Amino acid sequence: LSGSSISQQLLLPNPCMSNNTPSLLNEIPEIDLADPHAKTLIVKASQEFGFFKLVKHGISMDLIADLEALALNFFAIPQDHKDRAGPPDPFGYGSKNIGSNGDVGWIEYLLFNLNPEVVSPKSLTIFQENPENFRCAVEEYISVIKKLSCQVLELMAEGLGIEEKNTFSKLLRHEKSDCVFRMNYYPPCEDAEEQLIGFGEHTDPQMISVLRSNNTSGLQICLKDGTWVSVPPDNTSFFVNVGDTIQIMTNGRFKSVKHRVVPDTSRSRLSMIYFAGIAFNEKIRPLPCLMTNQERSLYKEVTWFEFKNTSFKHRLSSNRIALFLKS
Ligand code: GA4
User: Which of 269, 285, 315, 320 is catalytic?
Assistant: First the structure.
């Protein structure tokens, strides 16, 4: 990323943010997956924050460290080599531009398509400059994160008192589930005179997102009252965001959390996020078993295909769910 061409858009838009650092989120809900209360704590955290941290998840730190090293190798190769794996339309290597509606950030990234229905020849070029072990590490990581995501989704269903505990997880296990894996690299922004934005505020459209980052800060989440708080980095844990799809499926009980990333001035941040989505033809609507007697759906029924298409036509910060609210 070239420091000389920082556009106005990269500056943090929120005036209350530019001069003061948001407070640290000290009470981030921590879930130990082996704890018998995990399901209750996950539901509480999903309602209150739409965000929580997974500890004692059982995923090998070696696997993570290997993938992190390979990803850093990729981001360190010459720009023209990286560009051969781009542009991310919608999968591949991207730099600065996010999506296709004019959003920008102080970021480089790799987007992997995990939906067998979407043909993505670019997936091959991502690995072109890299040894076969990069592909293997990505595949292995995705397979363990998918299992972890299913575990979380099952605890969510159980905690909500849904009889079939695989209600959400079976949507992810579906052979045509539309998932994405993303590696984000935020170079340090030491020369910047003003606070830059790495990844602008947004919610994730899928069911849940499972994030792991190195030990560099940057992630911020927006609380219910609208205040932004920084999430202390923790490279041994995973962070889970509730996405738009689960907010709709729970008729608003779970909150799709607004979040953003502000790059560090002196250290680079690397995060890897697995977005657990559903198949294109699945309907997004509140689960009938969750609706109490008089309760009415807050949202218009929509397929994931329609929801995703509409989302991708709007700016990053747009309120996607609001587009599907019943009047
Ligand atoms: C946000 C969550 C995931 O990173 C992502 C993003 C996608 C993209 O980078 O292409 C989008 C964004 C995300 C939602 C609105 C549109 C599409 C950028 C953007 C401006 C891969 C996804 O699925 O939705």
Answer: 269
